[in-house]
Amino acid sequence: MVGLKGLAAVLAVALGVIACGGGQTAAQPSKTPGAPVTLKLQDYSVEQTDFHKQVAAEYHRLNPNVTIEWTSIAQAQYNQTLPLAFSSKQAPDVFYWTTGGPNAMNQLLASGWIQPWTTDATAAADWEKRWPSGSFLNGITLKGGKLYGFPWQDTHYWGPGYMYMNKAVFQQAGLDVSKPPATWSQLSDACKAIRARTRAYCIAAPMKDTDFQRLWYALAAGRLSDTFFDYRNGRFDLDDPRFMDTFNYIVGLNKNGYLAPGVNDKDFSRQQFAAGQAGIYMDGPWMVSVWAQLGFHSDGYAVAAHPAPDDTPRGALSQRYSQYAYWLSSQSTHQAEAFKFIQWVTNPTGFFVQNFLKNSFATLAFADNKKYLGDPAWKSVFKIADTKGFRVVYPEPLLKCPALADSKAFTMASTTRPNGEWEVMVQNLVNNRDMTADARALVNMRQAIFDTQLQKEQASGLKVSKDCYTFSGWNYDQDYNPANYPKS
After folding, report:
1. Model pTM?
2. Contact 93, 43 (CB under 8 A)
3. Domain holding 271: CATH number?
4. Are residue 93 and residue 175 in the same domain, yes or no?
5. 286, HSE (Cβ side, Cα atoms, 13 Å)
6. How many domains does the chain have?
7. Cβ atoms 426, 485 nearer than 8 A
8. What is the tally of helices (H) and strands (E) in the chain?
9. Is there a contact between 414 and 8 (Cβ–Cβ < 8 Å)?
10. Residue 217 placed within a domain
11. Is residue 136, in this structure, part of any structural domain at all?
12. How far is CA 13 from the centre of its chain?
């Protein structure tokens, strides 16, 4: 999972490339129906390459006049080459882009990268029925009555916060995976037993670059949140006492030798866990397919919810208006064919859904995930995420203040030193230092940029303010009621 802040920085560069490239290219009408058409799709899901070939072959079999060219490249390369493709007027017909989260559509429209999936309002409305009520929102997927985006990955099950336990290590330590550690103190006790009775480390915790998020989000959400922004008070919040409490707990784990040593990347840590060199690994449900790729299946591990603090207050993982992944390029001349293809892809019981879920690539927002994902690990994931308060719907500033679609304040603040939070935490963790001063300095820098830019935008006539980001009546362990958004 990649943090939005790092990708937002990519978008900032991309917008500059587009500006130099001359902006939006008007889409042309599709070719004569029945004429040969090649649809080009691009994303960075390299692990799905073989599956995409199967999808292309099946769709061509059903639609002989349409050839699907679906290419996937490494994410770092993709983030560099896609803006250049738009600038040189060689963009694919359909592309993957999640940078900006809820504001992705507005940023892509501003860059001139996208066009509506269809101009047929009736067809668009019929397509929307595949998703739960409330999935399509003005300012997020819809603008000017036109449909630009659609929810791709499910956000109820999909996300951080799951704890994987190696059954062999737990058994050697005299622990029962059916009674997983549910609190921080129980986690510490389990780690003590694993260290004392086995040769394994307790927790495989990656710390390279942004990989520390795997452990951090799981534990921090139990105390407060898995974001670095306080939506109750409208401020960046790494220096929040509840985050300090979480960080100090992790420091204690490290001091006691419960974290596997070294600043390792996620792949190394995952291999440690799968090889029985660590008893616990925390991450998202995508690990079910990752473990399978490593030859480690659910008969060798169990899944539980992340441990929570022993006391209160507590928080919850966030469910956001996000995961709008695939978009129709403004440079595509095949709008009708692309819309027909994406309708086929999102058929809740169709070829794509069945085989995508069979491979456990992700949970989908438009499918019955439980129907096709029957592995015991997935059943545990569903049970955990369905527990009240595990993941809650966070408030969305864009729905409170639609003018934020044109604001750069949050992006500017969060992409200045984009990985700053991870750098501060990892540097202080591995050096066994108190992070208070570094956290406060980072927060002050972000907040100064944020406040100053909001003031500039407000002075220019944009209806934005810090109040757009402030939801004082909401608590981190409850769903935000959409009825509380201002009526348009």
Report:
1. 0.89
2. no
3. 3.40.190.10
4. no
5. 18
6. 2
7. no
8. 19, 14
9. yes
10. yes
11. yes
12. 21
